[in-house]
Design a protein that fits this description.
With 227 residues, the protein is α+β, with helices and mostly antiparallel strands. It has one domain: 4-Layer Sandwich (Glutamine Phosphoribosylpyrophosphate, subunit 1, domain 1), CATH 3.60.20. It is 30% helix and 30% strand. The protein has a six-stranded antiparallel sheet, covered by helices on one side. Strand 3 and strand 4 form a beta hairpin. Helix 1 runs antiparallel to helix 2, helix 3 packs antiparallel against helix 4 and helix 4 packs antiparallel against helix 5. The longest helix has 22 residues. The termini are far apart. It comes from Halorubrum saccharovorum DSM 1137. This is DUF1028 domain-containing protein.
């Protein structure tokens, strides 16, 4: 019912320390995907979809926090899930990637795995949705633009390639989350956004992000003196 991308990017913080940034973005031709599919923390990013089992995402992030590798964590959850053939599950942690598409997912379905990202989708118009999403991210991986912006660009590329094939479903949704490993720096709230019901979800997600970012910067400037 969806397509999504999970990303890991390493970077250097202002003090010269090594950090990791995680992101996940998703869109579908159903409302409220942000409540079901994307999960991210300082330990990784996970997306659960197709016939959704939300616990795969929740417990996946929890297991990563407990120190399990992403492939061990997600494989263990799938092996304990009776609905495994109908699931799609993918994600990244600090060192690895994992992607699974059950054989009972609805065509077109599949996934792609890159050096620091995973993309998966089902009920798509074709494989080019996944390929174009991945290519759009790869074209500017670790770029100067914030990761949230680049994730939206990746969704837009997949959507332009056809996206979810159920054109009779007008009400759609999209969501993104970006987190990092910096203990003393909170992620800006515009890095966790949802468009729950729209006929133009990716466009609206971009507008929501830009508006939220502008609002955040205005607040930070207004209260720069700490009062």
């Amino acid at each position: 019912m969806t397509f999504s991308i999970c990303v890991r990017e390493r970077y250097t913080d202002d003090d010269g320390g090594d950090q990791v940034r995680y992101g996940v973005a998703v869109t579908t031709r159903l409302p409220g995907v942000g409540t079901l599919c994307p999960f991210a923390s300082a330990d990784g990013a996970v997306a659960t979809q197709s016939l959704v089992n939300v616990e795969l995402g929740r417990k996946g992030i929890e297991y990563l926090g407990d120190g399990l590798a992403v492939d061990d964590a997600l494989e263990a959850l799938l092996n304990a899930d009776e609905g495994k053939p109908q699931r799609q599950l993918h994600g990244v942690d600090a060192d690895g990637t994992f992607a699974f598409s059950g054989e009972e997912c609805n065509d077109w379905y599949g996934h792609a795995v890159g050096e620091n990202y995973t993309v998966a989708g089902n009920l798509l118009t074709g494989e080019d949705v996944i390929e174009d999403t991945a290519a759009a991210y790869e074209s500017d991986a670790h770029g100067d633009a914030p990761l949230a912006e680049r994730l939206i660009d990746a969704l837009a590329a997949g959507h332009a390639a056809g996206g979810d094939k159920r054109e009779d479903l007008a009400v759609q949704s999209a969501a993104l989350q970006v987190t990092n490993t910096e203990e003393e720096t909170d992620d800006p709230y515009y890095n966790d956004l949802r468009v729950d019901a729209s006929e133009t979800p990716v466009v609206d997600l971009r507008e929501t992000y830009e508006t939220a970012k502008r609002g955040y910067e205005t607040v930070m400037e207004k209260y720069a003196d700490g009062t």
